[in-house]
Amino acid sequence: MEIKTPAKNKINILPTSLSNKIAAGEVVERPASVVKELVENSIDADAHKIAIVIKQSGKQLIQVIDDGYGMPEADLELAFKRHATSKIVTDQDLECIQTLGFRGEALPSIASVAQIEITSREVEAALGNLLEIEAGKVIKKKKVSCPAGTNISIKNLFFNTPARRNFLRANSTELNQIISALKRFFLAYPDIDFEVVNDDTRLFYLKRGNIEERTKDVFGEEVFQSLLPLNESLGGIELSGFVSRPDKTRRSRGNQYIFINGRPILDKALSNAVFQGYGNLITPGEYPTYCLFLELDPKLVDVNVHPTKMEVRFSNERSLYYFFMTSLRKVLNEVKVIPKMGASGADAFLARFNDKSEETDLVQEIRKRRKYLSRGSGSQLSLAYFQPKSEDMSEGEDIPKEMPEPDIDVQFWQIHNRYILSEIKSGIVIIDQHVAHERILFERILKILKAEQQAAGQQLLFPQTLTLSVDDFLKFKEIVHLLNKVGFGIKVFSGTSIVIDAIPVDVKVGREGQIVLDIIDYFKENQDKQFDLLEKMAAAFACKNAIKSGETLNQSEMHAIVDQLFACESPYFCPHGRPVIVTMDIEEFDRKFKRI
Q: Global pTM?
């Protein structure tokens, strides 16, 4: 009889080096994650000045220098042990966290996938201490002369995990992620000096001041002027900050920040509460800018939810939701929110703002409806494009002049200021006015760009100056040659300020600044998408300059859109793949009314 030997254990305790690398996957996603963790440590050390030095967007070097209280020799080495922290001691501390870092995972996780050099000196100490670590192991330590505070360098991130390093994006993408992470700290801590240098170029030099000055520095003068101050309180909870006017939204979620007791967080419920506060003052696809600071008892919020500490859990989430929403509505109903007449989109905004009720009686609506009959050549051309092509017509060929005129006049109706509706032989056709105009502009601009032409621009009587945020300015420099090619005339004035002295013929005077900001947003949002650069610019211009849902069109404007749409090479989908046209056969109506 064969005797089976016991199987070897299948469950083993992981080596420290391997468990640290696994933990690093939770905490260290990319260079921006490292920057976030190190800056949090500097802030918790009561630093008044923090300098961040980056090389190759953090892949080669991330250095953070602060003037905080520093660490003694014993603490310096202990800081790189798992779950070692000076910020919590008891269970009660975990229930009332008031520091940014507290889990004791970041430094050992970073050390396991990088080469580290750190010096630190307490203010009262004569000498500081240096520590060099590689792949989690201390390779050098000694006494050194150094300034008070801490200076930590993270070199060659993921050098020993090449698969992780290969997943990093282009330098421009990683740099934008770092800037995005840092902007949260800039806004949360206006009482701290920040300096950021990337590849020997200074990107930020922010001197301590008040929150208004810091918000202007981070968002740029142009955006800051569109913000409304907010200050509300309820039962010991304080909400303050800034929100944008409804007519100054952007097509990007970029500038949206919420802070809880100085901690930047991402919270879907509170973000949704902000949108609910705006209600129908903004249309779908528009995003407000906001920077909101919530102060409450630390015992009412659990920040120990996720290793990155960006997600939190509230004990009174429902109450906070309504507090956010009602605070926004109160600010947005004040007189100062109404834009001046003549500003971009003012008429449309005022109409929405003052609209207290809508007539719903169908009979009244039909009696008020005006009937338009169009008999111009444009309507005939549009109808002809709806007809099937004869066999002797090749693809893309112009409609023959001798084609019979239609038996009926073409009529267009605008539905909810969003869709253009018309009758065709088989039923009805419905056209989305925004995406139709988007397709028209896209093909026109792309043709100009591919032909290496210079689109004609119209000179502005009064050139407009825009002061951009640093990350907006960096993106602007990448695309300014394309902006000028499509008809803008834009030059750098000084620093991050630009001057617009000419605009494309399609752009309405007064909207040029917003259009440029929207195009910058588009490129930032789609920077990882592998689009052809010329197509990306054509799509950005078309998306941001096309007529919007909610704009009223007259008969000639609707005719022009339909005519130009069906002269396009691909009239059925917008550059982003959304359908432009929907048809409904008369048989479908008959089925709905039970005729068949």
A: 0.68
